[in-house]
Amino acid sequence: MQKRIITPVQQTAPNQEWLTIEEIAEVEVTSEDAAHPIESALLPDHTGGWRADGPGEQLIRLLFTQPQSLQRIRLKFDEPLLGRTQEIVLRWSADGGESFHEIVRQQWNFNPEGSTGETEDLVVDLPAVTVLELSIIPEISGGDAIASLAHFRIA
Prior knowledge:
The chain has two helices and eight strands.
C-alpha cells in the first residue's frame, strides 16, 4: 500500500478588521444592567460585557445608518456560575426591519464544571444589511437566568 501524509486544510475565518459599530449604527436593547451596559460588549476598548437587568428573553438590535455588507459575525458568551440551556437567534433585515432572515438558531448548555463559554464565529455573505438582531433566551425552560454577552463583533 502506498500512502502519504498531507497537511490538513485549515478552515479559518477571513482575517478582517471589525467594523466600528459606534460610527455606523444605533443600538436598541431591551434592558441592561447599569454595571454592564451594551457598550461593554460592542466596543473593543470596553470590558466586562453586557448583562440584562432581569430574566427573560432579550433583544439587541443594530440599526445601521447606511446598509452594510457583512462577511463575519462573532458572538461570545460566558457563564461560569449557572448551569442552563441558552438559545440564541441571529437575524438580519435589508428593509429596515420589515422582514427578517434567520442566520443561525443555536442552543447550548452551560455547565460550571466544564462548558462555561460559547463562541459563534460565523462567516456570512450578507449584502445591504439595515438591521442585525440578536435574540437571547437565557434559559429555555424559563427560570431566573439573566442574559449576558461577552462580545459582539461584525466585519
